[in-house]
# Entry
Amino acid sequence: MGRAIYYLLIFDLSMAVDKPHITEAGIYFVTFTNYKWMQLFEITRSYDLVYKWFDHLGDKGHKVVGYVIMPNHIHALIAINSNDKSLNTIIGNAKRFLAYGIVERLKKNKDDDILLRLSEAVSASDKSKGKLHEVFEPSFDSKICYGADFVKQKLNYMHQNPVSKKWMLADDAIGYPHSSTRFYETGDHGIFEVANFFNLFYGIV
# Structure
């Protein structure tokens, strides 16, 4: 897609479900987190479910520009094509899909203590709507970014996350598999093939 579709615009909002829904096309930096920062992606080895969601985004005409999947949260730069679904809906659908898969794996692994904790976290109002487990924090973040330099800053932030002092998940950023670092550092795609943001920004296909 050309520049007319993927103009560089990311909104500075902490996006809860009651915030205005954004439907404009653009590249968005988004973050969402497991409930109470529990390491559910790692416990259930559900990184593959995130890649399935990325594939689904591609099927809908969107593109993943960069990402890192941490044990308990996701950072992603997503080029949202112009469509009738808001960013809230896109991320809400993702969280429902991922939550279902994570719960199924917890059940398969008989992680009853975790399932109980996630069940007890569901509010009364959500229980009345049929929700059984609180797998994610209810809101997600979207932060403003104007210009290529800021996108590069966000990419660097994401890519350094796994090797920060808090995590130390790999010896170097390229060595962490669930990240777009390898592509932006070497040109070789890792597990998931991302869209080069330079191509989107300058209208190259």
Remarks:
- The longest strand covers residues 26-33.
